[in-house]
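Hallway conversation turned thread

IA: we were arguing at lunch whether anyone had actually written out 15-oxoprostaglandin 13-reductase end to end. Turns out nobody had. So, for the record, here is the sequence (229 residues) and right after it the structure tokens. Reply here if something looks off.
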Amino acid sequence: MATATHCRRSKTRRLLVVHSVQHRRRLTAYFGLLNICGVKGGETVMVNAAAGAVGSVVGQIAKLKGCKVVGAAGSDEKVAYLKELGFDVAFNYKTVKSLEEALRQTSPDGYDCYFDNVGGEFSNTVISQMKKFGRIAICGAISTYNRTGPLPPGPDPENIIYKELHMEGFIVYRWQGEVKQQALKDLLAWVLEGKIQYREHVTEGFENMPAAFMGMLKGENLGKAIVKA
Ligand SMILES: NC(=O)c1ccc[n+]([C@@H]2O[C@H](COP(=O)([O-])OP(=O)(O)OC[C@H]3O[C@@H](n4cnc5c(N)ncnc54)[C@H](OP(=O)(O)O)[C@@H]3O)[C@@H](O)[C@H]2O)c1
């Protein structure tokens, strides 16, 4: 039988795990956008899986830095949430007639920075619309994690060469020590000032973990998908 102390300890441990997951997501957004993309005010930033834990923070930091932010998400509810967060443009990539056309209409001059959470065909379409010297942070490839067939082909190399694009993959653990402490301070200040908001999508019960995972891959979560055991 669980004692009160045991329950308190395991509740504390659960909270710590949740908070460390959230920290990791925010740090991923922070370093990917600021260090890999190196965004500057006035630039146009595109992010996908934009209502997710990483994407929603990417968009909010980009707004703090004075950028125009475009987000793609997989439901109208998520699109409404992105507008609440201050994204300049948000669209439902599942219902637009053509992703290529939606991106072109949104920013006819193209994109300076692309924060990629999704990979696959989606990315090839965005990368074909980057501006000269555009920067692409390859953060995740969620569209291909669960694939059963071969990987889809990558982006057109001539586009990358002639536009002199910079494309870099990264893992958040690259940044440690002082630089990480500074990032945590910045993020904490933005959260406390209400400049960065986030949501969690909580599923109760360890036994529901497989369903929660499949739901996340289908985009059923709004905010970080968390299972409370
Ligand atoms: N590089 C790093 O250090 C690092 C660290 C943490 C996370 N990551 C990566 O960052 C990405 C985002 O993580 P997260 O924690 O923000 O995820 P999340 O909050 O769990 O959101 C995942 C979202 O991805 C979208 N998605 C799922 N399958 C998709 C598909 N086939 N095509 C397009 N979109 C799809 C869904 O949103 P829609 O409804 O909008 O489709 C889903 O809600 C993941 O790829 C993850 O692996 C990388």
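OS: looked through it. The radius of gyration is 18 Å.
IA: good, adding that to the notes. The longest strand covers residues 130-138.
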